[in-house]
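User: Can you model how uridine-5'-diphosphate sits in this protein?
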Amino acid sequence: MSSYDYLVVGAGLTGAAFAHEAKAAGKSVLVIDRRDHIAGNVYTREVEGIQVHQYGAHIFHTSMKNVWDYVNRFAEFNNYINSPVALYKGVTYNMPFNMNTFSKMWGVVTPAQAQEIIDAQRQEITSQPTNLEEQAISLVGRDIYEALVKGYTEKQWGRDCKDLPASIIKRLPVRFTYDNNYFNDRYQGIPIGGYTKMVEAMLEGVEVRLNCEYRDLIAQEPQIADRVIYCGPIDAYFEYKLGRLEYRSLRFETELLAEQNHQGVAVVNYNEREVPWTRIIEHKHFEFGIQPVTVITREYPADWAPGDEPYYPLNDAKNESLYQRYVELSKQEGSVVFAGRLGGYKYYDMDKALAAAFDLIEQELQVRL
Ligand code: UDP
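Assistant: Here's the modeled complex, given as structure tokens:
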């Protein structure tokens, strides 16, 4: 006899949503996490009244009404709109690429003038873009590519833009309007009181064990649950028997500063190759904080080695095919389902992670959210 209907491995958004719905459906659930806190990479910790995003900036945005309604059941969202600033050689440019950016770069005023310059610069790309460099030049021209894309992207991913998939840059909007909203989505905001509080609400009444490794638990209690929802890295589950999937990692350096307003905006991107960090986050601006002090975090991209936090999957052809082989293998694990950003080896935004969790919930629990 198993002790639980479900063991959920990982207390991030996917695990918390699944556990919440399983409990609501009358199932017994245990959630475990190897870390000493819930909320996975959206974890926030309060410092001097400021919610500090411990694993990098998380701005919730979605166009899926069911996902937006769902998160609003567990938190009230503020009206933050992400409008990062890019800094290149001492000059600030608005992001994403829009009329403010074009105007600062070329002195143009109208959309037609901006379009004309970009059209001229994209002439060098004569066929369908096959890599990030070609894709970026064809979207915004060479000047912006050189200043705002190349250095940032190459330090972020540790690879030449010619060796990166075009899909990465398609995440960013390009607009011929004076609109600095980083996202095109219908809904956007930050949970008031922090993401940890939101995930706490999702996990209310659910048994959670922190500092708990899946392998250790299963070694002690092989029959602990009928089914396992595994949100850790899929290759780790199989003890890397087909080889290791690759990731990109990050290192964060956080400082409390005795000043009220350090950079005037939540996110400043540092687009020069020579500056070792990609961005500085000033957390209070995510929630319009007016504290006399401030907390900033420098984000440094890092090569990933086994044991490091796997932040970004490297969805290139080689890793994708290895992942597919793990998927084949996983089909033999009848009672284990792989989910989440790590279990699915996907560069998910939070809303996409939740939408995938909803599919899983429907499949497992026959509940449609
Ligand atoms: N990017 C860029 N310049 C910037 C910001 C982003 O070239 O100032 C590119 C870069 O290739 C990056 C991609 O856009 O990997 C996606 O950026 P996003 O901010 O969405 O990444 P995330 O927040 O997920 O790290």
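A couple of observations from the model: Residues 86, 95, 148-149, 152-153, 156, 168-169, 171-172, 269, 271 surround uridine-5'-diphosphate (CB under 6 Å). Residues 91 and 104 are 9 Å apart (CA to CA).
User: Helpful, thanks.
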